[in-house]
Amino acid sequence: MKKIIAFYCLILMGLTSKAQETPEFKKVEYPLGYTEQLNVVYTIANGWEGKMDLYLPPKDKGPSPVVINIHGGGWNKGSKESQTGFNTFFKKGYAVANIAYRLSQVAPAPAAVEDTRCALIYLIKNAKALNIDINKIVIMGGSAGGHLALMGGLLGNDTRFDTNCKGLKDVKVAAIINKYGIAELGDWPSKSLNMWLGDQIKNPVFVQSVSPIYHVKRNSPPVFIVHGDADPVVSYQQSVNLKKKLDEMGVKNTFITVEGGEHGKFSKEKNAEVNTAIMNFLKELGIHQ
Question: Across residues 137-146, what is the average pLDDT?
Answer without folding.
Answer: 98
